[in-house]
C-alpha cells in the first residue's frame, strides 16, 4: 500500500513532539543542573504507573494526569536530597547512583504491580481530520501539550527571576553562589522540576504505550540523543534535537525496519554530536 | 567589621594553603593582601566566603561567627566578592548580570543606580557580558558585586589583564566607593601603584602566613620594602 505523505508527516511530528515531552525533563536535569540522570526513564515510568493506579482506583485518567507530575517531582526531590546532591562534583558516581536508583524504582514497581504490561484507554476517543487525514485526537492533544510545555519552559527561563537564577547558575555555579544565590536549593528545585516533567511525559504517554516496568528504557537513549544533538541550549534547542532524533526515526522506519531506523538515527546523532562538540570547542577558544 | 583569627584553609583535607592568618577589616577601610603567586591570597578570600575548605580558626562578621555558614548566607550578610578572572556571567546580558547580582539580597541596588557609577555599562546593557573588553568586564564584575549593597568587598586582582590607563580609572572608582559609601575593601593586588593608592594597611603573605604588616603609606613612600617580598 502506498504511504500517505500526510500521515507520514503527522506520525513523524507526533514522535518528535512526544520525544520532546520526554526530553524536556532531561534537558532540565542534564542541560541545566548538569546531572546525567539514568533514572529519567524510570521517573517517566513512575508517572505512567501513577495514572494507571489512580485509574484503577476509579479516580479516572485526569486525576492521575494531574497528580503524576507532583508525585514524580517529589520522588525527584528525594532522589536529589538523598543521592544527587551528595555526588554533585562527581559525575561518574552520579551516573552509577542514578542507575542504581533506576533499578530500585523499577523493582519497586515490579513488586507493587507485577512484571506484566498494562494498558489504559485514552481519555479522548475518536479522530480529528488533519489536512484531510484522520488522526487520533488524544495523540494530537499530547502533541499540543509538548508544544505548550516547550513554550512555558522558554518563558520560565527567559522571562522570570527563577529562570535568570538558573541561567546564572548554569553559566557559573561558583559565581552564582558568590552573588548570594542558594545554588543547592536552586539545583534541587530544578532537578525536582525535571523529574516532574518526566512524570508529566509518562502520564501523557501512558494511553499511547504499553505500561510495564521496562517502558522507560526505550525512551532514555533517544531522549539523551535529543538533548545532546541540540544545536543550542534551552527548550528551543531541545525541540530541534527531538525533531532530528524522533522525527528522523519515524520517517526512516516508514521505509525500513525499526532496528535499521534506530541505527540510522544513532549514526546520524554521532555525526551531529561531533559537529556540535566541534562548534562548542570553537566557541570556547 | 570582619575579624579573622587563626584561619587555616585550603582545598583538600590535610593540605592547607592558608596557615593561621589573622586580619581585621572595618567599613570605609582598605586592607591590601600582597605576596607572590601561590602565597595563599586568593584562597584566603575564598575561605572567608566559604568557597575554600576552612579547617580551623574563626571568621566573625559584626561579632557573629560565619565560618560554618554557606557562601550565599555570607554574601547576603554583606560581603561582596569579585573573583580573579572575568567575574561575570557569560551568556547573560550586562543588565541581567546586574539584576542577578541583586536577586538574592534584601535591598538590591537597581541597575540604573549602578549605571550612574559605571556609565559604559549603560551603553552596553543589552550586550552579552562575555563580549565586553577586559576593562569593561572588570567594571561589570565590580558593579555586579555592588548590586547586593555589600558593606565589605573582597576584590581579587581587579587590575589583572586591563590596560594601564584603565587601572587609574578603576582606582578612582574604588576610592570613591570607600569614601562616599563607606565600603570596606579587602584587596588582593599585584599592582603596587593601585594598592598604594587605596590601601590603609597592607599584609604580606608568604607560604600561607602573614610575614609582614605595613601601614598603607609605606607602599607609596618605601616601595622597595614591599618589592622585595614580591620578588620585583
Describe the structure.
The complex is a heterodimer of chains A (285) and B (232). Chain A has a single domain, classed as ABC transporter involved in vitamin B12 uptake, BtuC (Orthogonal Bundle), CATH 1.10.3470. In chain A, 76% of the residues lie in helices and 3% in strands. In chain A, helix 1 runs antiparallel to helix 8, helix 1 packs across helix 9 and helix 6 packs across helix 8. In chain A, a hairpin with a 2-residue loop joins strand 1 and strand 2. The mean pLDDT of chain A is 86. Chain A has a two-stranded antiparallel ribbon with strand order 1-2. Chain A has 285 residues and is mainly alpha-helical. Chain B has a six-stranded mixed beta sheet with strand order 6-7-8-3-9-10, sandwiched between helices. Chain B has a four-stranded antiparallel beta sheet with strand order 2-1-4-5, covered by helices on one side. Chain B has 232 residues and is an alpha/beta fold.
Given helix and strand content, the structural type of chain A is mainly alpha
Overall CATH architecture of the largest domain in chain B: 3-Layer(aba) Sandwich
- Corresponding CATH architecture of chain A: Orthogonal Bundle
- CATH class value of the largest domain in chain B: Alpha Beta
Q: Strand arrangement, largest sheet of chain B?
A: 6-7-8-3-9-10
CATH H-level homologous superfamily name of the largest domain in chain B: P-loop containing nucleotide triphosphate hydrolases
Rg over CA atoms of chain B: 17 Å
Order of helices and strands of chain B: EEEHEEHEHHHHEHEHEEHH
Amino-to-carboxy terminus distance of chain B: 33 Å
Amino acid at each position: 500500500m502506498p504511504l500517505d505523505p500526510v500521515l507520514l508527516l503527522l506520525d513523524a511530528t507526533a514522535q518528535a513532539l512526544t520525544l520532546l515531552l520526554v526530553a524536556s525533563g532531561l534537558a532540565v536535569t542534564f542541560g541545566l543542573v548538569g546531572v546525567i540522570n539514568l533514572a529519567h526513564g524510570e521517573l517517566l515510568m513512575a508517572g505512567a504507573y501513577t495514572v494507571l493506579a489512580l485509574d484503577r482506583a476509579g479516580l479516572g485518567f485526569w486525576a492521575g494526569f494531574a497528580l503524576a507530575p507532583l508525585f514524580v517531582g517529589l520522588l525527584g526531590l528525594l532522589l536529589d536530597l538523598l543521592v544527587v546532591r551528595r555526588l554533585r562534583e562527581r559525575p561518574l558516581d552520579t551516573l552509577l547512583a542514578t542507575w542504581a536508583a533506576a533499578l530500585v524504582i523499577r523493582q519497586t514497581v515490579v513488586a507493587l504491580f507485577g512484571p506484566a504490561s498494562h494498558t489504559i484507554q485514552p481519555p479522548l476517543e475518536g479522530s480529528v481530520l488533519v489536512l484531510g487525514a484522520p488522526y487520533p485526537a488524544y495523540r494530537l492533544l499530547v502533541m499540543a501539550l509538548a508544544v505548550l510545555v516547550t513554550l512555558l519552559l522558554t518563558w520560565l527561563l527567559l522571562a522570570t527571576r527563577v529562570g535568570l537564577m538558573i541561567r546564572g547558575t548554569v553559566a557559573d555555579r561558583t559565581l552564582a553562589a558568590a552573588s548570594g544565590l542558594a545554588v543547592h536549593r536552586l539545583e534541587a528545585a530544578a532537578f525536582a522540576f525535571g523529574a516532574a516533567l518526566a512524570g508529566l511525559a509518562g502520564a501523557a504517554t501512558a494511553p499511547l504505550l504499553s505500561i510495564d516496568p521496562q517502558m522507560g528504557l526505550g525512551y532514555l537513549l533517544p531522549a539523551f540523543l535529543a538533548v545532546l544533538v541540540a544545536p543550542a541550549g534551552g527548550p528551543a534547542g531541545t525541540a530541534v534535537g527531538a525533531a532530528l532524533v524522533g522525527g528522523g526515526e519515524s520517517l526512516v522506519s516508514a521505509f525500513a525496519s525499526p532496528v535499521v531506523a534506530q541505527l540510522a538515527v544513532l549514526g546520524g546523532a554521532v555525526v551531529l554530536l561531533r559537529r556540535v562538540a566541534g562548534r562548542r570547542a570553537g566557541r570556547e577558544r | 567589621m570582619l575579624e579573622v583569627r587563626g584561619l587555616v584553609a585550603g582545598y583538600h583535607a590535610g593540605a592547607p594553603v592558608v596557615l593561621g592568618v589573622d586580619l581585621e577589616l572595618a567599613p570605609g577601610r582598605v586592607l591590601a593582601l600582597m605576596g607572590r603567586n601561590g602565597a595563599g591570597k586568593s584562597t584566603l578570600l575564598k575561605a572567608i566566603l566559604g568557597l575554600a575548605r576552612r579547617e580551623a580558626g574563626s571568621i566573625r562578621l559584626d561579632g557573629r561567627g560565619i565560618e560554618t555558614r554557606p557562601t550565599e548566607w555570607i554574601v547576603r550578610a554583606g560581603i561582596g566578592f569579585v573573583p580573579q578572572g572575568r567575574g561575570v556571567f557569560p551568556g547573560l546580558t550586562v543588565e541581567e548580570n546586574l539584576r542577578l547580582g541583586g536577586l538574592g539580597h534584601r535591598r538590591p541596588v537597581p541597575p540604573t543606580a549602578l549605571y550612574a557609577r559605571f556609565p559604559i555599562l549603560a551603553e552596553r546593557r543589552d550586550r552579552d557580558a562575555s563580549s565586553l573588553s577586559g576593562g569593561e568586564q572588570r567594571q561589570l564584575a565590580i558593579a555586579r558585586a555592588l548590586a547586593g549593597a555589600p558593606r565589605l568587598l573582597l576584590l581579587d586582582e581587579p587590575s589583572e589583564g586591563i590596560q594601564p590607563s584603565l587601572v587609574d580609572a578603576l582606582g578612582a572608582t574604588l576610592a570613591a566607593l570607600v569614601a562616599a559609601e563607606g565600603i570596606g575593601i579587602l584587596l588582593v593586588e599585584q599592582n603596587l601603584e593601585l594598592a598604594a593608592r587605596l590601601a590603609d594597611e597592607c599584609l604580606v603573605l608568604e607560604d600561607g602566613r602573614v610575614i609582614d604588616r605595613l601601614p598603607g603609606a609605606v607602599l607609596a613612600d618605601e616601595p622597595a620594602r614591599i618589592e622585595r617580598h614580591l620578588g620585583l
